[in-house]
């Protein structure tokens, strides 16, 4: 029991999600720059499964996801992945423009 509880805590901390945020995001939105949508969806699935088995543990997970350390870490990761995503989009635009102007001659 203690090992499974520790495993669930580690999973939640690694995926670092809050339940209300998960349900408001779509995995398949094309304009999403947030790379944490899929881990959020996985964390929501884990939370829902655990909550069905034991509401007490589910509440504990929800509370653990709201701790300042988890929230600050998650916000940092979101901020940095958003920056990386924007840079990747800019790079793709430059490559596309280079392809059209230099290779195809448009």
UniProtKB/TrEMBL annotation:
GO molecular function annotations of the record: enzyme inhibitor activity; nutrient reservoir activity
Keywords for this protein: Signal, Storage protein, VLDL
Fetch the InterPro entries from UniProt: Apo-VLDL-II
A single GO CC term, please? very-low-density lipoprotein particle
- Any one Gene Ontology biological process term? lipid metabolic process
Give the signal peptide as a residue range, or say none if absent.
Answer: 1-24
Give the domain of life.
Eukaryota
**Pfam families linked to this entry:** Apo-VLDL-II (PF05418)
Family of this protein: Belongs to the apovitellenin family.
Described by its record, this protein's role is as follows: Protein component of the very low density lipoprotein (VLDL) of egg-laying females. Potent lipoprotein lipase inhibitor, preventing the loss of triglycerides from VLDL on their way from the liver to the growing oocytes.
Record protein name field: Apovitellenin-1
Q: What is the lineage of its organism?
A: Eukaryota, Metazoa, Chordata, Craniata, Vertebrata
